[in-house]
Amino acid sequence: xxPEVLLTFDDGPTEYLSEILSILQAEDVQALFFWxxxxxxxxxxxxxxxxxxxxxxxxxxxSHPKLPDLSYEEQLEEIRKSKERLEKLMGRGITRFRPPYxxxxxxxxxxxxELGLEVVLWKVASWDxxxxxxxxxxxxxxxxHTEAGDIVLLHELPQTVKVLPKLIDQLRRKGLALSxxxxxxxxxxx
Length: 190
Fold this sequence. Notes:
Layout: E1 4-12, H1 17-27, E2 32-35, H2 46-52, E3 56-59, H3 72-90, E4 96-97, H4 106-114, E5 118-119, E6 124-125, H5 135-145, E7 151-155, H6 158-173, E8 177-178
Parallel strand pairs: 1-2, 1-7, 1-8, 2-3, 4-5, 6-7
Helix pairs in contact: 1-6, 3-4, 5-6
């Protein structure tokens, strides 16, 4: 079996999700999406497609705050509200959580544990949010820094849509396989 990496997408669902899903489907890649529950009103219809195509969905809080700036109670409300809303829409449990900006503190970790959520960070940032017009840099950031077992951070952005096929191709040329989050959850927690 080839060394694997896992692609993750934050800050959705957005209007770019459908294009991202079409690319992933064409490339036979499954990913893990971390969604903000305050964005679900914009695009509840895509939830079924994400699940039907074998992707996983995790919580990215309700409104994407910097959690360490909030009290314990405020963090609990952000995380709990997101988890409950996603679970209600999906009809199944949410077990993964990515803190917005990758920022957390002891309270965040305690709340995640109490709610049965595994905190999933990343090893390689694409910096796609920083490179709106430099798509080559996004691909290079991922290609140059990704190794077997890594989790890659991407976002639901137009520049990510543009580079995604090339990014997948470059990872494969490097000898890496794109793991399926359902069957290769051993990458979570690295």
